[in-house]
Amino acid sequence: xxxxxxxxxxxxxxxxxxxxxxxxxxxxxxxxxxxxxxxxxxxxxxxxxxxxxxxxxxxxxxxxxxxxxxxxxxxxxxxxxxxxxxxxxxxxxxxxxxxxxxxxxxxxxxxxxxxxxxxxxxxxxxxxxxxxxxxxxxxxxxxxxxxxxxxxxxxxxxxxxxxxxxxxxxxxxxxxxxxxxxxxxxxxxxxxxxxxxxxxxxxxxxxxxxxxxxxxxxxxxxxxxxxxxxxxxxxxxxxxxxxxxxxxxxxxxxxxxxxxxxxxxxxxxxxxxxxxxxxxxxxxxxxxxxxxxxxxxxxxxxxxxxxxxxxxxxxxxxxxxxxxxxxxxxxxxxxxxxxxxxxxxxxxxxxxxxxxxxxxxxxxxxxxxxxxxxxxxxxxxxxxxxxxxxxxxxxxxxxxxxxxxxxxxxxxxxxxxxxxxxxxxxxxxxxxxxxxxxxxxxxxxxxxxxxxxxxxxxxxxxxxxxxxxxxxxxxxxxxxxxxxxxxxxxxxxxxxxxxxxxxxxxxxxxxxxxxxxxxxxxxxxxxxxxxxxxxxxxxxxxxxxxxxxxxxxxxxxxxxxxxxxxxxxxxxxxxxxxxxxxxxxxxxxxxxxxxxxxxxxxxxxxxxxxxxxxxxxxxxxxxxxxxxxxxxxxxxxxxxxxxxxxxxxxxxxxxxxxxxxxxxxxxxxxxxxxxxxxxxxxxxxxxxxxxxxx
Length: 694
Hints:
Layout: E1 42-47, E2 79-81, E3 87-91, E4 96-100, E5 106-110, E6 121-122, E7 131-136, E8 142-146, E9 151-155, E10 160-166, E11 176-177, E12 186-191, E13 197-201, E14 206-210, E15 215-220, E16 231-232, E17 241-246, E18 252-256, E19 261-265, E20 270-275, H1 278-281, E21 295-300, E22 306-310, E23 315-319, E24 325-328, E25 340-345, E26 351-355, E27 360-363, E28 370-373, E29 384-385, E30 397-399, E31 405-409, E32 413-417, E33 422-427, E34 438-439, E35 448-453, E36 459-463, E37 468-472, E38 477-483, E39 493-494, E40 503-508, E41 514-518, E42 523-527, E43 532-537, E44 559-564, E45 570-574, E46 577-581, E47 587-591, E48 612-617, E49 623-627, E50 632-636, E51 642-646, E52 657-658, E53 666-671, E54 676-681, E55 684-689
Antiparallel strand pairs: 1-52, 1-55, 2-3, 3-4, 4-5, 6-10, 7-8, 8-9, 9-10, 11-15, 12-13, 13-14, 14-15, 16-20, 17-18, 18-19, 19-20, 21-22, 22-23, 23-24, 25-26, 26-27, 27-28, 29-33, 30-31, 31-32, 32-33, 34-38, 35-36, 36-37, 37-38, 39-43, 40-41, 41-42, 42-43, 44-45, 45-46, 46-47, 48-49, 49-50, ...
């Protein structure tokens, strides 16, 4: 099967919130090379703990899990604190509202995990769909921006849920009485002293207002009209406003996410710009290379400052009324937060930070953060028996002819899972990034991202941050095969004179030609057995728009993973599409992202909506693609029909047993034998057995 497969991927900074108790079936086999048969197909754990930072569990802080599989829907973790000092958070991926006690214990207040819906009624029966921002009123009612339902919901103190404004399944722009008003993906809601609700109407690019008597109007901006303009009321323009907070002076502060700026609206409705992004945020020398981008939640203090969760940089930014910005991180060692999303300011000045890594932190005056709830998900690498071994963000996997598996570990190593179920480190020094050649663990790598065997048993590794291709021979000797460490470029020629730019995916054909997804150059490169590098497809610094065509006109956008069939057709995951390159150099698109603006899903089975980090080919010529964003494995048959064979879109966790099971962030995938495929899922390796006889 070696000629059929490859694998791939790269480290992603995105981690999520909860996990579920695993159903560890079929774990009695000490190894994994034995063929498995099933009428339905199975998933089983091969190596790793089986744990993930994402799931649905209530319970003590160390047990509780959240689920943030909602990035593509633009929701965020909403936070609110009642008069009793109890903390509430939205769990968008689980479609629920959660409550967190002072000791970190978590319970579900409303909604039911993994059951999206729009039902009103008692909290035990009510259903939500991607709830995001929320706020308490003076009477103790909790208002929720129910993003996926395009509506504003209310949870009263007596535990009843009702729809305040908007209609589930009916996005629109209408003002008027609450029952007839329409919203389009509202993401946050805040309340003023008079009891008026203000809504960040994300896809309508406007700020809406709901009066206590239920009349809805467009307060700032024009519904459906995007832009970037200051002014009074309808003169202003926004682009996907995401989060809101009132400052001490009664101004409404808006995270204008599409424009990546922070806006200020006075009580009179005058819109101005408070902070314009990189120019302000780069004043702190530690932030000079950080772009002000993915801002989620915001809070304001009594001094008039606004704190924002800068998810893209892992920092909390403090914006003073003057617009000056100060950034703070977890401690004096400059440790970053893990994608902060939701924020809330307690009466005593403590800030609670809801992170995407599963922790809710409590911070005092920008100092060391203490974990309030959620597990610390450690980054460790540990060899030993497969189920006792641990990995750190593995991304790519491949198999040798003896049934052993090899995978890349983000801590700059190459790991091996033997067919008898023992994990070892075969090359690289843990946490020692570098480019030194040598024998086994004397060698150094810098983010190894894909690997593949040739017919002679040599293992080729794309060493992404070294911009080179490394080679590990059968004796374990590591050499630089093509490119030069630290020298990015796009140069063809002999292997050591050639230059690459962040190479990721690898494939190899029956003639031992090595193909490279040269991601930074948006190219596919070919290395012949004679050691000559040529460009097969794409141009460096090409357009960001995919285009089919020949070697001169074809255009790739973000080539990541590669697979090749016995006839020499090369398959490429190109961001959110799958492309095909024929031996004569013709590039065509097999399937592409059809995701549109606004809410879709979250349980699609027909299209690859997310980024595809892994690809392999089965014995029947079907492509198996790991859809990282949607936590599923898709199958594409030779006619281009797509089906989902493992995982369920929107359910981010690991569940073994009968297919489809559940997957967490699937990345590398490779063929073990006719019906068995090894899949990287989080920090674990699973065996996926498809139905049929081996």
